[in-house]
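Give me the fold.
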Amino acid sequence: MKSYIKQRTLEVAQYIATSHETIRKTAKVFHLSKSTVHNDLQKRLKKIDSKMYEEVQKILDQHFEEKHIKGGQSTKNKYKNFVAKEK
């Protein structure tokens, strides 16, 4: 693995570990694609630092479990605002 990829993977992992941000927001911060961030965290990090991988995986699992709740709330707000504009 090239050193710049290893360094990027560790930086992205550290960012998620400290900020608890989503993959999508992290990708924007680092100007990377979501796929790149996902591959860094799921495949590469496990080989580089297994302890950090476990820490980040817990955060990503939590995001996955909350995804449907956030999506439902977002849809509810969208239609609430849509109805309010019609009146």
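The chain has four helices and no strands.
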